[in-house]
Predict the 3D structure of the following.
Amino acid sequence: MRLAARLAPNLAPNLAWAIARRELRGGLRGFWVFLACLSLGVAAIAGVGMVRAAIQAGLSEQGAVLLGGDAQVEFTYRFASAEERAYLGQRAEKVSEIAEFRSMAVAGDARVLTQVKAVDAAYPLVGQVALEGGIPLDQALADRGAVMDPVLAGQMGLVPGDIFALGDAEFTLRALLTREPDSATGGFALAPRTLVRLADLAASGLLAPGTLYDSAYRLDLPDGTDLDALEAATKAAMPDSGLRWSDSRRAAPGVEQFVERIGAFLILVGLAGLAVGGVGVASAVRAYLEGKIATIATLRTLGADGGLIFAAYLMQIAVLVGLGVALGLGLGTGLPLLLSGVIEAALPFPAEIALYPRPVMEATFYGVVSAFLFALWPLAQTERIRAAALYRGGVAGLWPRKRFVAATLGLAALLLGGAVVFSGVPTLALGTAGGVAGALLVLALAAWGLARLARRLARAHLLHGRVALRMALASIGVPRAETVQVVLALGLGLSVLAAVGQIDSNLRSAIARDLPQKAPSFFFVDIQPDQIKAFLAQVTANPAVTGVESAPMMRGVVAKINGADAMTVAGNHWVVRGDRGITYADAMPAGTKLTAGRWWPEGYDGPPQISFAAEEAAEMGLKLGDRITVNVLGRDIEAEITSFRAVDFSTGGMGFVLTLNKAAVAEAPHSHIATVYADAAAEAGLLRDLAKAFPNVTAIGVKAAIGRVTEALTAIAQATTLAAMATLVTGFVVLIGAAAAGERARVYEAAVLKVIGAERGRILASFALRSVLMGAAAGLVAILAGAVAGWAVLTQVMDSAYAFDGVSALMIVAGGVLATLLAGLAFVWRPLAARPAGVLRAQE
C-alpha cells in the first residue's frame, strides 16, 4: 500500500473512497444523532424560508389586488382638488376614491371604535369583497347601507338589519365582512373595519376640515404603463401637494418588511439550533472515530498515512452530510407543501406555497457549512495520530495541524458571511452570531468549571458518607465524560428559551404595572376648534375625571433638514418616515422642560420657529439653529429649531416631536386632541356622555390599543418560542446521543461498583444525580445568558425597563434538570442489569 501510494499518488483518492465505501457498508449505526441534529436544523431553516418566500411571492403576484389598483396616490387631511382629480383621470382608465379614518360606531348604549373605509361605486377596482351570505357589495351599501367586521358587530350586539350611527349619520347594517382584498395595505389597525359609501358621510360631520383622515385614489392603468415614469410625472405635476405614491410592485411594504425581518430572525434562531446540532455532530464524529481505533491503527500499520485516513473518513462524513441535508430539505419543504392549504388560510396576507429555490439553497448552505465546521476538528485529529497511540486508546487532546485550524476558522467566517448576506439584516445577523458564539464560550467554560469543581468536591471530606453524590461528582469530573456535550447542547437551547421568557414576562409586567398608574383612559381626536371649550368644560365638570390635557393637532411630513432631503440626512429614523403629529403653542405649555435653547416670546409672529423633542433630535444629529421644512397640507413651512425639550412618550400621555409657534400654522385647518384620565369604574359613563354631546369626536381606549399591540407582540413571541423549542428539541437529541454514547462506560462503571458492594438503588441514584447536576448547571448558565439577552433587547431595542423574572428562571432550570434526567434514565437500565463477571471479563 505504501509503495502504491508513493508510485501513484493519484490513486490516493480512489483508495480513500474504497476504504470509505467499505466502512459505510456497515450501516449508519452511531450516526443517527448526527443525522437527526443536521436534518432538524436544515428542516427548520428550510421551512421558515419556504413560508417567507411564499408570502413574498403572494405579495408580489397579487400586488394590484392588495393595493386595490395598479397605483395609488394618497393625501392626508384632504381630498384631491378638481385639478388633481382631472390629472389622475386622464392617465388612468378608472379611478376609485376612498377615505379612511377612525370613528365611534354607536348603537344604543354601545359605543365601539371602528376603522371606517368610505368607498365610491368603483371600489374595488381589483379583487372582490366577500360578504356573509354572498350579498353583492353594491347592494349592501345602497341606501345608507354598511358592512362590518363580525368582531365589531359582535361587540355591539348588531345583526344585519340593525341601525347604528357614525357621527351624525345613521346606517343600516346589511352584511358581515369576511374578506377585504386590500386590507394588508392598511397597516396596523386599532379597530375592526366598517365599510360605507363615501357619499353617505356628507352629513355625518366626520370629514370636516382638520379631521384626521386619509384619502386615496386607486388607479386602473392601461397595460404597459411605465410606473416609474408615471410616478415621477405625478410628483412633478403636484410638487407641493404632500402626496404619497405607492404601486403594485410593492403594494404592502410594511407587511413585506415585517415578513422579511421576522423571517430573517427566525432563520437566525434556527442557526442557533444548528449550533446546538453542531455539538451533536462533533460528538457523533468523535465517538464514531473512537469506535474505529482498531481499524485506523491497522491501516496505519499497513502503511496508510494520516492524509489517506483523513480523506477516507472525510468522504464518509461528506456522504452523511449529504444524506442529513437531503432529509432536512425533504422535511422542511415537504411539510409546507403538504399543509399549504392550512398555512395559506391561517396567514393574514396572501401566500403562494410552492417549491422555491432560494430557501432550499439557503438551508443547504447552512447545513453543509455548519456540519463540516463542527466535524472538521475531530476528523483532523486523526491525521496526527500514530498507530501505537491509537492502540493505547483515544484521539482526545491532540491538536490538528495549522491548516485544519485555519480551515475551521474559514468555515466559521463563511457561515457568518452567509448569515449576513441571506438575512439581509447585517446587524441582526452579527448580533445573533455574536450571541450564539458568546453563549457557546460561556457554556464551554461552565462545563470545564463544572468538571473541575466536581472532581474537587468528590474528594472533599464534607461529602464523606454521601456515596451516591460522590460517585455522581466523580463521574462528571472524569476527562472523557459527556459533561461538555450536555451543558453545551442543552444550555444553548435553554438560553434562547430563557431570553424569550424574560422578554415576554417583562413586557406583560410593564403593561400590568404601568398602565393603571400612568396611562390615560382615552384619547379623544377630531375635536373641532369650535368644540374644544365645551368639550373641556364637560370633561372637567365630571368628578370622576382626574386629569385632562389638550392640544391643537395637524399632521405633516418632515420633508427637508437644512435644505436637504430629510431621509438622506436622518436616515430611516421614525420621525421622517411618513407623516407625524404636529402641534402649535404660543406661551410655553405648563410642565414643559427645555433642555436647550429658548421658547419664543408670547404673541411672537416672526419667522417660524420649532421646539424639537431632545432625544429624537440627538438621534437625528440635529442642533440649535438647524432648519426643518415641514409639509402641512401641501404647504412647505421652513422653521428654525430654537429649543429642545424633554418628551416622555412612554407615559401614553400627550407628546409631540414638533411644536411650532402659533402664528406659523394657526390658520391651517386642524382639530384638537385630548387625553383624559378617569377612574376605571366611570370610563363607560364618561364615554357615553361625550359621545352623545360630540358625536363626531372619536375616542380611542388606551387599554384596548395596548391590548392590540400586545396581541401582535404575543404572536411574534409565540413564533420565536416555537423556533426556540425546535432548538431545544435538537439539544435533547444531542443529550440522548451523549447518553447513548456513554452507555458502554456506565455498564463498566456499574459492574465495578457492584463488585465492591454497591446496590442497584445506590448506582441508580448516582446516575440520576449526575444528570440532575449537569442539567442544573446548563439551566443556571442559560438563566444568565437569557437575562443578559433579555436586558439587551428590552433596554437597547425596545427602550423599556428590565426586571429579572425569577419564575421564568426557575422553570428553565427545572426544564434543564428534567431533560437531562429523562435522557440519562433512558439508557440506565442496561448498565444496572449487566452482570459484573461478563463485563469485566470482556475488558481483559
User: Anything to note?
Assistant: The radius of gyration is 34 Å. The chain has 29 helices and 21 strands. The first strand starts at residue 71 and ends at 76. Residues 63-250 form one domain.
